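Worked Example 4.2. Consider the chain below.
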Amino acid sequence: MAASASTTVLGALGLAVLAVVLDPLWRWTGKLETLVHEAGHATMLLVTGNWPTEVVIGSGRRAGGHTGLPDRPIFLPSAVAAASAGYAAPSVAGLVLARSVDRGWSPVSVLAGLLVVLIVLALFHGNWTALLVISTAGSLLALFLWRAAPSVQVGVVVALAWFLLLAGLRSMWEIAGIPASKIKDFTYLARRTGVPAEIWFLSVGLGAMFSLFVGAGWLLTH
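Applying the procedure from the previous section yields the following structure tokens:
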């Protein structure tokens, strides 16, 4: 059983590395990272009692995305939580999925939870690209829930965990050469809190590395 789990974890790691490192693949898999980024914004807005107006994913290779803020003013704690959740979301989601594997949570429950999140996001889609990415990811999750064997479902959770942990780090690497003051999330945080954008960037970057280190430990010892 341990050998089988090790093969699953290492195989999933190999696939995730290819999906994140190879640019031709990242052109498409990066849309999933963008979706999780925007889901982080939208989720924190909803959790803090605010209503996102739209979730948009760009159609270009590095077009990024956008989550519309409500028209009314947002209180500082809610604004900080929502703005900081974007770049942190892939790493945090990957860490939670890795923990679910480590703790032996039911893969059906985990995948069903992800599917519910996608259904909620679909209600806020702001363009066709966002709807396409959400519906594609949701259809695949539904297929694995309906048809896949339990061992395959575990493999999907492991693969998603690896992908998100690595994707969170790659997204920070891609913007490392851009002044933090020109990145809208960190600029917004700096304006609302007075803390320099560079500090916010460093905090999220260190968080991504920490998540990968901890999450890898949980997965590799599974």
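The longest helix spans residues 76-102. Strands lie at 55-57, 65-67. Compare this with Example 4.1 before moving on.
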